[in-house]
């Protein structure tokens, strides 16, 4: 049975998964890179950008993100900062020529545009679809492998609200962003659907593992 | 040097420290007793109500709450559910004839009323005062011992915003309350003022220790 998974998704202690004021230069707005600092230290991240990196508990969570994943679903603002109709289709997202996904990626947007085939196996598809419909497309594309819900917070929250997530790794970073987009709004009783296991890391992060009951 | 401390204050994973709909029968509103379940299992709690109770990490945090504390400051809704002018001064709060504080307790309210002397050394004083002014009164009453900020969330948040807290123990319970009163609103950058150490407990709670830098 293939699973729907969330990985390495990080929130501040006050619950924000991204800051205020997203722009081309600041994908996380005023949060900058602070939410993902624990991830930048892991071997999984370092190997995308050279070598080295830690192999402890942060890495044990980090390295799980892409194993057996056959497709990703992401919100439009994980692809780029644009709002409204696309004005520049030449720009191909924050993820570089060879994005780290290496699978089909379904970008949720009310403004569909032609798919973009990148190097390394990543193809961005732009779809205006409900969570359930997007998941059906991604599941078909994943061809028996799992589907990752890649974020951002609005997307993860929508899939949680629709009860479409099987397991989820959330890292809680010891930060107070104060403003931005919160992950947890409107999810009363989520603990009834998931077993939740917290574990702390020397990096200061608390990793939460959610497993569907 | 005496310290200003917060203890055993519990929030849900989505950041609520109390639920919606507080009433005489439901001090935590729709949250019921769920936030404090980790505490109900500790020896510190059990000894107030009989005997027994765990002695592990939950108890290590729980038992610290009253040592060297000479006064408490609490919000009005930790005393009782009334809003506006007091209509029944006969009712003496949720804490019974012999409240567990055994010190002066300053209850913040815009509606002062005469102090109430209870059994066991607890006296409730009702004061309409800013956090700084209330702290000055409590510090004097504590006579060299520490002052505890007892809650609820609005009170703790006000004292944090005014930078009047020296150390703080927050327990994060694996619950999603969805509604109620949040603790963390408007505290951007709090991590710059406090070292934050998380530790998990077998009860499922994550204990956060905040120590002023």
TrEMBL record, chains A, B:
GO terms for biological process: riboflavin biosynthetic process. InterPro entries: DHFR-like_dom_sf, RibDG_C, Riboflavin_Biosynth_HTPR. One of its GO terms (molecular function) is 5-amino-6-(5-phosphoribosylamino)uracil reductase activity. Keywords: DNA-binding. Residues 8-188 form the Bacterial bifunctional deaminase-reductase C-terminal domain. The keyword Acetylation does not apply. This is DNA-binding protein. It comes from Mangrovihabitans endophyticus.
């Amino acid at each position: 049975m293939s699973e729907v998974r969330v990985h390495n998704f990080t929130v501040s202690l006050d619950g924000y998964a991204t800051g205020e004021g997203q722009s081309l230069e600041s994908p996380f707005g005023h949060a900058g890179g602070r939410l993902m600092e624990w991830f930048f230290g892991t071997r999984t991240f370092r190997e995308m950008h050279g070598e080295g990196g830690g192999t402890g508990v942060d890495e044990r969570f980090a390295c799980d993100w892409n194993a057996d994943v056959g497709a990703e679903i992401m919100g439009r603002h994980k692809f780029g900062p644009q709002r409204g109709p696309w004005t520049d289709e030449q720009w191909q997202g924050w993820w570089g020529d060879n994005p780290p996904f290496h699978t089909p990626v379904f970008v949720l947007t009310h403004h569909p545009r032609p798919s973009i085939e990148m190097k390394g196996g990543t193809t961005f598809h732009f779809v205006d679809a409900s969570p359930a419909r997007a998941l059906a497309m991604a599941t078909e594309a994943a061809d028996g492998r799992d589907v990752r819900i890649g974020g951002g917070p609005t997307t993860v929250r929508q899939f949680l609200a629709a009860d479409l997530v099987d397991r989820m790794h959330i890292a809680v970073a010891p930060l107070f962003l104060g403003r931005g987009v919160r992950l947890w709004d409107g999810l009363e009783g989520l603990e009834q659907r998931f077993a939740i296991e917290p574990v702390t890391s020397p990096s200061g992060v608390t990793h939460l593992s959610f497993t569907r009951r």
